[in-house]
């Protein structure tokens, strides 16, 4: 294939699309102005179709399950391109599962809704009592009442993944231009992929709204060998908080969710709430250092599912609106958009998540 394609947006989704298109033989240019609030560099990187499931959208759940199944090969392909043998060392890809815990009997009713959904969709899930949860994760609070373990939920470091995708794209011939795009019609490329996340709504008439999400990054004290072993999502007094550990002792804690326009300022109240809920789940976090407070703007749609596929006369192809699931859905989004642009065949997923469904 020889084609001139512009990808607008250089986050994980846009960079994954550019890499896969270049591998297929396309001449690709990525336009990226590295705007503040990019969700890719703030996200925790939970690859969690189970514990992150959207209970009222079965189509999105099934897309998420399919995406999670592609991640092992996607991570291996990135590692191979860089001549790395371990995807964990390369992009922080860890097949460690997620533990969803309830802090009280009332919270347990919330996680039981997920168990029923998992069973219907054929997702492997294990029900643990509080004692079993603490045996596997000794740092958990004595207040943990019960848990669900989803071994098929994995994690990745989005920052390392984005850096790896940029390198892989460059090796495959992708050009990157560090400038903003204000009008898609001014791009000279034959085809345009719009993957600008929250900012996509400024370039085309989509109902995309920025959803403010605040995340904290903590780090274990020097010499502390007792770390959380897997991602933990807790329901605590009806609120949800997640803890995503890295192999270097970092723990990502998140996340708030507010609709505040394009404001990327961190808020004291969100910091306090996240820390309080995290310490309730793992009391030892009081000894950790708070090293970062970050805000990302998630691209939300009316149904919080992505917008995928061609619009208008077909010159522009959309890959945006992934909301909380951009990292998880990046590999399958890249494959679907690449298949469409290289073959002309429209995968069923592009019809399901039609970019013009809210027109």
From TrEMBL:
Keywords: Oxidoreductase, Thiamine biosynthesis. Residues 4-338 form the FAD dependent oxidoreductase domain. Gene3D superfamilies: D-Amino Acid Oxidase, subunit A, domain 2, FAD/NAD(P)-binding domain. It catalyses: glycine + O2 + H2O = glyoxylate + H2O2 + NH4(+). It holds the Pfam family DAO. It comes from the Bacteria. One of its GO terms (cellular component) is cytoplasm. Pathway: Cofactor biosynthesis; thiamine diphosphate biosynthesis. Its EC number is 1.4.3.19. One of its GO terms (molecular function) is glycine oxidase activity. GO terms for biological process: thiamine biosynthetic process; thiamine diphosphate biosynthetic process. It is an enzyme of class 1 (oxidoreductase). InterPro entries: FAD-dep_OxRdtase, FAD/NAD-bd_sf, Gly_oxidase_ThiO. This is glycine oxidase. It comes from Stackebrandtia endophytica.
């Amino acid at each position: 294939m020889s084609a001139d394609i512009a990808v607008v947006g250089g986050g994980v989704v846009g960079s994954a699309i550019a890499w896969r298109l270049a591998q297929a033989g396309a001449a690709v240019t990525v336009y990226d102005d590295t705007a503040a609030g990019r969700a890719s560099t703030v996200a925790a990187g939970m690859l969690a179709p189970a514990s992150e499931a959207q209970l009222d959208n079965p189509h999105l759940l099934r897309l998420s399950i399919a995406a999670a199944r592609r991640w092992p090969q996607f991570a291996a392909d990135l590692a191979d391109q860089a001549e790395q043998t371990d995807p964990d060392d390369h992009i922080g890809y860890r097949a460690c599962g997620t533990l969803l815990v309830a802090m009280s009997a009332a919270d347990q009713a919330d996680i039981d809704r997920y168990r029923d959904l998992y069973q219907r969709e054929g997702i492997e899930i294990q029900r643990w009592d509080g004692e079993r949860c603490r045996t596997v994760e000794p740092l958990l609070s004595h207040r943990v009442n019960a848990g669900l373990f989803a071994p098929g939920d994995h994690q990745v470091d989005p920052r390392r993944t984005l850096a790896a995708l940029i390198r892989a794209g460059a090796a495959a011939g992708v050009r990157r231009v560090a400038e903003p795009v204000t009008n898609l019609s001014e791009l000279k490329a034959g085809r345009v992929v719009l993957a600008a996340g929250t900012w996509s709504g400024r370039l085309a008439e989509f109902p995309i709204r920025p959803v403010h999400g605040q995340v904290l990054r903590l780090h274990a004290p020097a010499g502390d060998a007792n770390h959380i072993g897997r991602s933990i999502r807790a329901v605590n007094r009806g609120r949800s908080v997640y803890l995503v550990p890295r192999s270097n002792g970092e723990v990502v804690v998140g996340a708030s969710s507010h609709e505040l326009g394009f404001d990327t300022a961190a808020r004291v109240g969100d910091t306090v709430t996240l820390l309080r809920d995290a310490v309730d789940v793992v009391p030892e976090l009081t000894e950790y250092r708070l090293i970062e407070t970050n805000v990302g703007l998630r691209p939300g749609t009316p149904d919080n599912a992505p917008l995928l596929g061609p619009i208008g006369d077909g010159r522009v192809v959309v890959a945006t609106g992934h909301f909380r699931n951009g990292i998880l859905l990046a590999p399958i989004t890249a494959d679907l958009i690449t298949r469409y642009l290289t073959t002309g065949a429209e995968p069923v997923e592009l019809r399901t998540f039609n970019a013009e469904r809210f027109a």
